[in-house]
Design goal:
2 copies of one chain form a homodimer. By secondary structure, chain A is α/β, with parallel strands linked by helices. In chain A, 27% of the residues lie in helices and 23% in strands. In chain A, helix 5 packs across helix 6. At the A-B interface, strand 16, helix 9 and strand 17 of A face strand 16, helix 9 and strand 17 of B. Chains A, B: Pfam families: ADH_N, ADH_zinc_N.
């Protein structure tokens, strides 16, 4: 199968066109003087149109492609199902590939073969697409050498697969919004989210206190205990914050200078209430689907600033090199046991179950990471 | 009366205590080897407690005070009734003098007499308290030489009396929030407010387009015409902006990079809708008493930033010299006919009517400026 499809098979990445999968599409084969490196055929989760992910995402077999001289063929090891992956398939994410497209945006793989002029990578190396890019839900990916960032193989694959979206978001929000010093405090809602868990641990590693807001839910004491074990100073449910003087709950912790909001609605208002004079709230999600509401006096007299953070935009502004350095820092923290979060490895063969879990159809579940 | 009260009479400014007005309060008169300069007795609008301004503000006679060697006695010429003056009397403004206190925060006066070591000012000079300070609603004020900023006597007194709060707010918001270049655009609601009128004209003088939002009201065409005569590029009522694609109304004007909100509620949402990707909205008032509501995607994907502006805070951060330079610039624009706004001079004797007008009890009225 590899040979007769040769290098005229479709590319797997951005410009993937499943309608070309069946053959050479009438193009003539070109004879080449040297033997071309080709990828193995690949299996991919493809959506042909936007829609409900469990309706439109299908397993598709993709023929082999040529690995050009500057390209690297990577055998994917693991890739997560992130909420933004789901939103891209649904067609509600502002920047998304046009269908038909392969799902997924980050992951980790092992170099399978390299083009003739590739010098920085060798078969067996572990690599991640950095900055992350579309189409990681497939068994083999061929992309330019520059796309791949070599990482230490000592990291558990599920962490390598998930480091470039959520932990990097947490690190950038902590380091690039305002200057925080050891002893300062931050406040966040959605503290059990993957970014939330990373914020707690990354703050802790810098001596920054964290005040955490979570939903009222069954088993709340266990959740609080888990977040405190990660380094959370304070954890409150939204109901516990229905008090007159919210800041009396801070105890000895300074009023937070920075807040993170991934929920909106009342949970965002609670973050604003905790902030100190002149504080900043950064919105990076809206899980409640409710807007953020702010009083006039919060702006004028409390001097609060509100802004957003979007990893994809940050990465689009010539930050590739800087982000790779940050990813290496994050992976070192993982290896040192200072950065942990809950994940579940799901076999690729059972992608549908993993997707159902990611879609919330099976109750609260850990982050689903596909193992190829 | 001047002589027998001497220099033991109460100070008129921050620490004014009306209970001392009646006499020497049991203190002995001190004989001095040189003749002390004393102010004339003063008449002031005083409130003894926070409350409804038309109930608590009273005309009080204040005895003469000594003019110390570094002090200047100023005969006030004019002072406005600003909304923030009313809020201070009501006790709802975050920074306010403790009652009993004299009302007012800005104004213009003529130097009446100076202390023995004062060299920068002479009787007859026109001065304004800069930065503005409490207690301008009185006929004579004695304060340190440094408090007073000498201005050109060629400016109409009602402009000199009103330049340090609203026009300075407009200028600072235009110049200190983001960098704007000629050809850029701003959007604002509350465009008929005094700050709004100044924004239009100051933007125009720098080649910056303004998009203006006003309330639906009787005589709206006349209001639009007046704002356009000032230099407004576009003026819309809120109802006119209930359209699907608000930006189609911009015509050839670029999407605004900066927005000003002094209303809140829907009028603030309209400002946000007009803003370009990465734009900033500055809130400096909340006339509708409704909060600002912002969607999650406005923060994340449209990358909007929201903040506040408060003149009193800006002035508190060592900006006295800079603000005097800006006031001189604004007064020059007034003299050149490039900065105009509607005011009504009201005789001090009829303060109560002016206050009723400022409180909105007599319908829509121009800014009330007391003439002493």
């Amino acid at each position: 199968m590899l040979r007769h499809l040769g290098f005229h098979a479709p590319r797997l990445a951005f410009n993937f066109k499943p309608r070309l999968v069946d053959g050479c599409n009438g193009q003539s084969l070109i004879t080449r003087a040297f033997s071309a490196v080709v990828s193995p055929p690949s299996k991919a989760i493809v959506y042909e149109a936007h829609g409900a992910p469990d309706a439109v995402a299908k397993l598709v077999e993709i023929p082999a492609v040529e690995v050009k001289e500057n390209e690297v063929c990577v055998k994917m090891l693991a890739a997560p199902i992130n909420p933004s992956d789901i939103n891209r398939i649904q067609g509600v994410y502002p920047v998304r590939p046009e269908p038909p497209a392969v799902g997924g945006y980050e992951g980790v793989g092992e170099v399978h073969s390299v083009g003739s002029s590739v010098s920085s990578l060798s078969p067996g190396d572990w690599v991640i697409p950095s900055p992350p890019s579309f189409g990681t839900w497939q068994t083999y990916i061929v992309k330019d050498e520059n796309v791949w960032h070599k990482i230490d193989k000592g990291v558990p694959m599920e962490y390598a697969a998930t480091i470039t979206v959520n932990p990097l978001t947490a690190l950038l929000m902590l380091e690039h919004c305002i200057t925080l010093n050891s002893g300062d405090a931050i406040v966040q809602n959605g503290a059990t989210s993957m970014v939330g868990q990373c914020v707690i641990q990354l703050a802790k590693s810098r001596g920054i206190h964290s005040v955490n807001i979570i939903r009222d839910r069954p088993g709340v004491d266990e959740v609080k205990e888990r977040l405190k074990d990660m380094g959370a100073d304070k954890v409150f449910t939204e109901n516990e914050l229905e008090v007159k003087n919210i800041k009396s709950l801070l105890g000895g912790i300074p009023e937070p200078a920075l807040g993170f909001n991934c929920v909106g609605g009342n949970a965002a208002s609670l973050v604003l209430k905790f902030l100190r004079q002149g504080g900043t709230m950064v919105t990076y999600g809206g899980m409640s689907k409710k807007p953020v509401t702010v009083s006039t006096s919060s702006f004028i007299f409390k001097d609060l600033s509100l802004r957003g953070f979007w990893l994809q935009k940050w990465l689009s502004t010539d930050k590739a090199e800087e982000s790779r350095g940050m990813i290496d820092r994050l992976l070192r923290l993982v290896q040192e046991g200072k950065l942990k979060y809950k994940m579940e490895l799901a076999p690729f063969d059972d992608f549908n179950t993993a997707l159902d879990k990611a879609l919330g159809k099976l109750g609260s579940q850990p982050k689903q990471v596909i193992k190829f």
